[in-house]
Amino acid sequence: EIVLTQSPGTLSLSPGESATLSCRASQSVSNRYLAWYQQKPGLAPRLLIYGASNRATGIPDRFSGSGSGTDFTLTISSLEPEDFAVYYCQQYGSSFTFGPGTKVDIK
Amino acid sequence: EVQLVESGGGLVQPGGSLRLSCAASGFMFNTYELNWVRQAPGKGLEWVSYITTSDSTLSYADSVKGRFTISRDDAKNSLFLQMNSLRVEDTAVYYCARVRAYWHFAMDVWGQGTTVTVSS
C-alpha cells in the first residue's frame, strides 16, 4: 500500500500570500494518479486537482498542481479568505489512500 | 443537478449492523465507479470501499475487510454499504463519492455524509 505524507501539518498565512503544500508518496504513484481535495469544517471534500496537475471543473486558476513519481505539490498563488481549509492529497494504485492533510489557517 | 445523498447512519452498539445507502441523481449512475470514504471525528479521510461498474471489482480497506460489503443497484441509482460486526473505531461520517476513472480515479462528486456512531 502506498503511504502519503503531507507537509507541513499546518500552514499559517495571510490573505494574498502564496501557499505551497507538499505530498510525498512511499513509492511511485503510477500514471500521475494523484488528486488534491479541499475540505472546510462540516462539509464534504471538494476535488481541486486530478492527474497531479489538472484543475477540476470550476476550480479557480490560483490553484495549481505539479509533480510526478513520489513528490507532488499544490500551490495556491494568492490566498483568498475562502481558501483557509484543510487540504488532502489522494492516490490510486491497487487501492485508494489519502494523506493526513495540511491545514491552512489565517495568520 | 449532479447529486449524491447518503442515509442510514445512526447509533449502534458494538457488534451491531447498519446498512448505509447513497442515492444518486443527475448523471448516468451505471457508468461510474463509486467509493465509500469515512472520516472519524477530528481525523482525516480514510478510503473504505470501491465498486466498479457491473460489480466487476470490489475492494476494501484492510480495516473493514470481512465485515463490510459494498453493493450497487443500477436500476435504482443507489449504492450501499452493509456494515456488520461494528466496532467503536468505525465511528465516523461516511461519504459516498463518484470516481472518475478518466480523471485518474479522482472523486469529483461527494455526498453530504451520514454519521455512524458505534457506542454502548
Task: Please give a structural write-up.
The complex is a heterodimer of chains A (107) and B (120). Chain A contains no helices and eleven strands. In chain A, 35% of the residues are buried. The mean pLDDT of chain A is 96. Chain A starts with a strand and ends with a strand. In chain A, a hairpin with a 3-residue loop joins strand 9 and strand 10. In chain A, the strands form two sheets. In chain A, strands 2, 4, 5, 6, 9, 10 and 11 form a seven-stranded mixed sheet that branches. By secondary structure, chain A is mostly beta strands. Chain B is mainly beta and 120 residues long. In chain B, 0% of the residues lie in helices and 53% in strands. Chain B has no helices and eleven strands. In chain B, strands 2, 4, 5, 6, 9, 10 and 11 form a seven-stranded mixed sheet that branches. In chain B, strand 7 (68-73) and strand 8 form a beta hairpin. The chains are: A mainly beta (107), B mainly beta (120). The A-B interface holds A 31-35, 37, 39, 43-47, 50-52, 54, 56-57, 88, 90, 92, 95-101 and B 35, 37, 44-47, 50, 59, 61, 95, 100, 103-108, 110-113.
